[in-house]
Amino acid sequence: MKNFSILISLILIVESSFGQTYLTPKVTKDSLKSISISYNLIQACINEHSLYLDYSPFKHHAFGFSIGKVIDNRVFEVFVLSPSQNVYPGTVYSGKVFRINYSYVFRKRRSFDYYAGTQFIYRDMYYNNKKFRDGGDTNVEYLRNEKATVFGGDIVWGLHSYLHFNKYFSLLFNVYSGIGWRERNRNIDTYEIVWNGSGGNNVNSPPHLGNESVIQQYVIPIFGVKLGLKIHI
Predict the structure, then answer these.
(1) The predicted structure's pLDDT at residue 10
(2) Binning pLDDT at 50, 70 and 90, where does residue 75 land?
(3) Domain hosting residue 58, numbered range
(4) Is the pLDDT reported for residue 208 higher than 70?
(5) Number of structural domains the chain divides into
(6) 109: CATH
(7) Three-class SS string for 20-73?
(8) Has residue 22 been placed in a domain?
(9) What percent of the chain is modeled with pLDDT above 70?
(10) What DSSP element (H or E) covers 16?
């Protein structure tokens, strides 16, 4: 009788284990779908306000786009690394910016993940009646209008960190860096030039009166910090 009781107990334990195994919901690809909405804090401090929307249909893949506004930021209008404002005029532009992106996620965890990806960017920008100054004791001041388009691509890698409110909503914090390539097509109208000083025309890349078209290609570092909301669907 004692052996029979032990056997019954073992059967109940096994049945209980099987019941827990088959009744526990499995994590599927569908349950890992999510949508993220975020805002880039670094870009907002420089010259851009953009809203990012990313969709992750599977565990390791995410696709997204952004739409934003380029703003004229007087704090960074003089680009200190430029040989002249004629070459790289700084954050004087206004306009629109669009991006599309893809990322592959590594080490996806509940509270964080790492990723690498690529993004493509297009900007349509302009400024009107802007006054520039190049040079030191001998300097040149000039007024101009400009329309410019920029396109290019970036390779980025970064970290997502999550603060979970519940199973549907999470606070998203994203830090990323990378390298990018740009081509800028500029259509410039310079309609006034004034030279100051007595040293002659010794300013790097001086401006020219009239209309000119300029194509510039360059490599830039990429860095961003995003704050947003992740929604699990």
Answers:
(1) 42
(2) confident
(3) 28-232
(4) yes
(5) 1
(6) 2.40.160.20
(7) HHHHCCCCCCHHHCEEEEEEEHHHHHHCEEEEEEEEECCCCEEEEEEEEEECCC
(8) no
(9) 82
(10) helix 2-23
